[in-house]
Amino acid sequence: MKKPFRHKWIAIIAAALSLSLLAAALALVLNGTAGPLRSGMETVSRPFLRLFSPVSEKLHQAETWFRGMESLRAENERLKEDLAALEQEAMTGRLARQENRRLRALLDLGAAGQQLTLESAWVVARTPDNWRRSVTLDKGTRAGIRAGQCVVDEHGALVGRVSQTGTSWCQVSLLTDPAFRLAGMGTNSGVLGSVEGDLGLMTTGEVKLTNLTQADPVQLGEGVVTFAAGETYPSGLVVGTVTSLAEDPGGLTQSGVITPAADLDRLGEVFVITAFREDK
Fold it and tell me: What is the rounded distance in angstroms from the CA atom of residue 108 to the CA atom of residue 18?
């Protein structure tokens, strides 16, 4: 019996609400019109309008809050975009500074009486076996690269020499390759020797300095540079530093070990010396 009674009251409330809404609507329609009809409609609708006024205010506040949240979300997205743009600008600035340092180093390379023509290239492959040390570059004869030309890193330190060429690629034998040979000179003593790759030193990343007599005053810690007279590579390119000296069998000659100045295990962009002129 309770359920029908409750349903009855719900129906009565719904009917009253409908009448109040209808009265409010008519009151709005009759706005500006005097008379008993308008007064009656206002009297009927006033309690219900008072009842629903707080609800309407809460709905308005909720709408304002949601609009504020949407504005905050949009502002957050704009800030994220601005931050990403600033990070990109910072990265570009760092890369520009690195490029500037690299170019300054290359300009200093030709300061000691050398005029070098450099062709930049990137290492795209390395020799996959344990018997050679060479890399493949992404430039070849189309860029003026020929066999025998020297390759240096961004600091001007010798990396190796071009051994094979194609139209758009070339292979470079690194200093540590057993087939590498180049004339070298001590920067302090002026002693001439042969810079050679050695199979026994290949795993340590070092090279030999051979053809030295016992009387040659080569010292530990002495720098070694390239030496050439009208060859396909210039003199004065930094090879590395003498880290050890040893007497050869027979006791008439000695040889040294050179640690290369270039980091041969982390080569990226390198530079092929396609032409040079040494000022006399």
Answer: 92
Rounded Cα distance, 213 and 221, in Å: 18
Record the tokens describing residue 167, joined without a space: 């139209």
CB burial of residue 105 (10 Å; 0-12, 13-18, 19+):
middle
Question: What per-residue confidence (pLDDT) applies to 80?
Answer: 75
| Neighbour tally for 117: CB within 10 Å | 13
Separation between Cα atoms, residue 182 and residue 228, nearest integer Å = 9
CA distance 152 to 139: 14
Give yes or no for a contact between 182 and 173, defined as CB atoms under 8 angstroms apart: no
Give the C-alpha separation, 276 to 173, whole Å: 20
Instruction: Output the six-digit token pair for 277.
Output: 């002129």
pLDDT of residue 1: 46
- Is the CB of residue 139 less than 8 Å from the CB of residue 211? no
* Interatomic CA distance for residues 276 and 118, integer angstroms: 9
pLDDT band (50, 70, 90) for residue 101: low
Indicate yes or no: pTM above 0.70.
no
Residue the block writes with tokens 């500037």: 100
